[in-house]
Amino acid sequence: MHKVDQLLVAVGYYKKANSEGLQMSITQAFIISRDPARLMRRLCKHWSHKFPVELDEQRGLVRFPTGTCEFLHEAQLLQVRLAMAEEGLPRMQQVVAEHLQRMAGDEPLAIQWCESLE
Questions:
Q1: Which residues contact 6 (CB under 8 A, 6 or more apart)?
Q2: What is the CA radius of gyration of the chain?
Q3: What does the alpha-carbon distance between residue 58 and residue 34 come to, in Å, rounded to a whole number?
Q4: pTM reported for the whole predicted model
Q5: Domain 3-104 has what CATH class?
Q6: What was the pLDDT predicted at 23?
Q7: Is 22 helix (H, G, I), strand (E, B) or coil?
């Protein structure tokens, strides 16, 4: 796969109140991968030792103390959606990106988070 084919198309950034009324920022990214289901499973299983995780064939959800990270996959596409307080968002974007790259092994992933308004 060419690097151009591995471009990440990231979309969506908006604010939403969570159930406690706290302002949550939400970003999402679409990552091209040879095996997005494997990435999702590996990362969810990795984080299940520390955080509550829901995992099925198409979707993974990690519940961090400060927000959530949801994974959906289809064909060669992995959608990652982060929802948390705005001040913690940049750090969690970095943490998720680093973990995804580690789980991908030798497959380089182009990971970029978009902050455009939905």
A1: 32, 108, 109, 110
A2: 14
A3: 16
A4: 0.78
A5: alpha beta
A6: 75
A7: coil
pLDDT at 21: 57
pLDDT, one tens digit per residue, over 99-109 is: 999 999 999 99
Strand pairing category for 9-17 and 23-32: antiparallel
Tokens 């519940």 -> residue = 63
How is the chain split into domains, by residue range? 3-104
Whole-angstrom distance, CA of residue 111 vs CA of residue 24: 22
Q: Name the token pair of 64.
A: 């961090």
Question: Residues 43, 46, 49, 54: what is their CA dihedral angle, to the nearest 10 degrees?
Answer: 30
- The amino acid that residue 73 corresponds to is H
What are 61-80's pLDDT values in tens digits? 999 998 999 999 999 999 99
Q: What letter represents residue 4's amino acid? A: V
Residue type, 29: A
